[in-house]
Each structure stands twice: as structure tokens, then as C-alpha cells.
Amino acid sequence: MTPQLQQAIRLLQLSTLDLQQEVQEALEANPMLERQEDGEDYDNNEVSESHTDAGINTPTETGNSQESLYEAPSHSEESFEEGDWSERIPNELPVDTAWEDIYQTSASNLPSNDDDEWDFTNRTSAGESLQTHLLWQLNVAPMTDTDRLIAVTLIDSINDRGYLENSLEEIHAGLDPDLDIELDEVEVVLRRIQQFEPAGVGARNLQECLLLQLRQLPSDTEWLAQAQQLVGNHLEALGNRDYNLLMRRMKLKEDELRAVVELIQTLNPRPGSQIETSEPEYVVPDVIVRKHNGRWLVELNQEAMPRLRVNAHYANLVRRADSSADNTFMRNQLQEARWFIKSLQSRNETLMKVATQIVEHQRGFLDYGDEAMKPLVLHDIAEAVGMHESTISRVTTQKYMHTPRGIYELKYFFSSHVSTSEGGECSSTAIRAIIKKLVAAESPKKPLSDSKIAGLLEEQGIQVARRTVAKYRESLGIAPSSERKRLI
């Protein structure tokens, strides 16, 4: 593989956010590169036309080899005046070599010299952890030094869900024997911690967690006493959805039991999840799909696509016959800059071809939703655009499409198929959508079993085994029928 092809493949599999970071590093490391500002005319390095009608056949690559996918189209005109530095970039560099073997510098190994704008916290800070949140409350709570030591040990034993992972006996055994701390003291400190926010933190099991949250509710809360009785004595029956047994034991009517259960459902069985421990991940769509005059249009997200060009002033400083170290460095930087721009152009062209073919295959989804999704595999798109399946896999990984129905990863549009009774095919995505629709419309008192769902699908001509229904149901995050039973 040539260095150009290696670079093009690497840029092709980067997400939009990673690509923007890569471009920023290249701009900082290579003086020959500069960003194209809004309102300025594109030069020869501009990406090709990025607005394509999905209803029109777009040109595809005709080459069969993967290398041909990254050959950038030639241009006969330059947007800046060419001087003695101008020379043709070779079509190919030696194979099986690294970029650093040809050029002296790389964007990845040169740090930014702008120390004034370097903000370490912005690049290393993460969301507040549960332990940090609890320690902050501990610092403002009045305690003796011994109790504070016990509290820090207890907080270290609380997991991300908010539960105490170790027993009090194990925590007590790990304390310094010279402090002569009794087990009762550890339990007293734990009760202090259990009064911290979020409510229910520091519990040893689910029952204690729910009871802690109920105790922190106002005393005049309706059905509070019954909810405490249910959680304290009949939690297992509630987990089994045995509502008839609960009504008999608690001597409640159906509507009264429903009110008690609704109060319990307002509680959080994982109180630690309320504290965000990681930075939010943002999704920037690479492709935008919209409908215009009854036709689906596909276009690149220009705001997310970096626009670069060669700096004409620095490029004109390169002299052909000069072999000095400075001139050699500038020549190498110029070569690297132009290949980087061509790799970006190749990435955008490939992304557009693949996205256009996906929209062409999945018009039913865009018009009618998940139930109209057609079966689609990588081979179908690879054959349509004349590329290798591995290339399609790279293009569809961590690339997103903005549609009127939401933002989806390109891989979402690929799914296997199931044969129908009429000899046709139905995609697994469409079957999942049908299962979700059936479950949403089921009777709460008598939810549909997997066998019943398989029978309903068979009535629609879709032959799916019960175990396949169970697999699709689990992938949708839908609980089994025994756990979906609830009061009306």
C-alpha cells in the first residue's frame, strides 16, 4: 500500500469529530495548509459537487482494485500562480512504506506551539463521579475525625450504581485496629451517608434502597405507608407481578394497589446513575437527506466537512533547483499538504456515493418508517458503487445520516433478511419494528408471549421461530411477557 492510500484509508474510517481533530493537527503542523473561510471561492482543492439527487444515477468508480478508489481527479487549472516550485505529484509512491519514510514531518507528532491557548482542564476533565459528589457532602457534614475516616472508607466501597459493595463486617475488618472502632460505629456512619444525595445511596440491597427513598418523601405523601409495607414485606411478589397475591395480603383493591405501585415506580433502583460520570458524546451528521419536490436529495453536511487549500504565498517560496534544508522541508510540506487535501476529497466522494445508494435502497424507510426497511448487506452497496466490501464497512462506521425521521448511523440501514410465505424477503429491522408495535398494543394484564408473537408474525406471512423472536425482543430492550404484566 502506498503512503497516499494508507492516509486515504485512515481518513475514510475516521468519524466527523475525529476528522476535525486530525485536520486541526494538520493545520498546526503544516504551514502549507490553510482553512478555506466562508464566502471565499473554492480553488482546485475543493471537494467535488456534494449535492446529489438520490433519484439520479451517480457516477461510480469503474476500477476493480481498491487502490483505484482513492485516485483523485486531475485538475488543469490552479487557483494561484504557479512558480518554479510547481511539479507534478507522482501518481504513486513506493508501496509498503510509511508516510514518514517520504516526508520529514507528520501532523500527529508535532505539538501545538500555542501554549497560551492550551487548556489542560478542557481536555482532561470528566463529569463528576459519585464518590466525588459524596465526598463533597462529607466535607460539609459535622463529624469527628474517626467518623470521617470511616465515612471515606464506606464511600470508597460504593459502586457506580450507588450500592455498598462490601459488607460492614469486611469494611470493619479493613480499618486500623489501633483505632479500636466497633462495628456499631461503622453502621452509624453508614446511616449518616445514607442521608446524602442522591436518595437511596449507600444501600446494601434493592429493598433498603427503595425504603431509604420512601423515608425521605414528605410524611403526607399519599399511599406512603402502604408503599413502605409493600417494599418491606412483599417485594418479591411485586417482582413476580403477582398482583392477586398482593391484593389479598395487603387487603387492597385493584385501583388502590395500582396507586401504591405507581408511587414505587417513581423511585430510582440505581440512585448512582443520577450522577453523570462521563462527558456527553455529540453526534455530528456527515450526510443530510431531505425531500424536495417529491424526490429525496442527499448532500454532505458542509458545516462538518473541513475545507482546506494550499497557502499560495508559502507555495510560491519553493524553488525547484534549490536543495537547501529549508527548501527541502518546504517541498515536503507542500507534497504532504496536497496529498492530504486529495485524501479529504476522496473521502467525501466515497461517502457521497455510498450514502446515495443507501437512500436509493431504503426509500421505503424514509417514506413510511422502520416497518418498510428493506434487507440490505454490504455486498449490495459494494456492487452498486464498484468498491470493495471492506471499503463500504469503513465508510459506514461512525458516519451518521440526518433524515426527517432522525439521525442514524449508516450501519443502521443494513440488516439481514427473513423469507416470507409469498417468496419475498423482510428485513430484521422491519421485524423488530413490528414486534415493538405488537408489544405496545398488547393487553397489560395478559402480555404476548414469544410464541404468540411468532404466530402473529406468521399470520402476516413472516415465518420466524420463537427463539428468533426472543432474540429480536431482547435487542429492543423489551422484557419477557412474565415481567411485562402490570395492572391496567
Automatic annotation (TrEMBL):
UniProt cross-references to PANTHER family, sorted A to Z: RNA POLYMERASE SIGMA-54 FACTOR
Could you tell me which PROSITE patterns the record lists for this protein?
A: SIGMA54_1, SIGMA54_2, SIGMA54_3
Q: What does this protein do?
A: Sigma factors are initiation factors that promote the attachment of RNA polymerase to specific initiation sites and are then released.
Which organism does this sequence originate in? Answer: Azomonas macrocytogenes
Location of the RNA polymerase sigma factor 54 core-binding domain: 120-314
A Gene Ontology molecular-function term?
nucleotidyltransferase activity
Please provide, in alphabetical order, the Gene Ontology terms of the cellular component aspect for this entry. DNA-directed RNA polymerase complex; protein-DNA complex
Where is the sequence biased in composition, kind Acidic residues?
Answer: 37-46
Source domain of life is Bacteria
Chain ranges of the RNA polymerase sigma factor 54 DNA-binding domain = 328-486
Write the protein's name: RNA polymerase sigma-54 factor
Q: Where is this region: Disordered?
A: 29-88
Q: By its UniProt entry, which Pfam families does this protein fall under?
A: Sigma54_AID, Sigma54_CBD, Sigma54_DBD
Any GO BP: DNA-templated transcription initiation
Alphabetical UniProt keywords: DNA-binding, DNA-directed RNA polymerase, Nucleotidyltransferase, Sigma factor, Transcription, Transcription regulation, Transferase
Its taxonomic path starts at:
Bacteria, Pseudomonadati, Pseudomonadota, Gammaproteobacteria, Pseudomonadales
Q: Where is the composition biased (Polar residues)?
A: 55-68
Recorded family membership:
Belongs to the sigma-54 factor family.
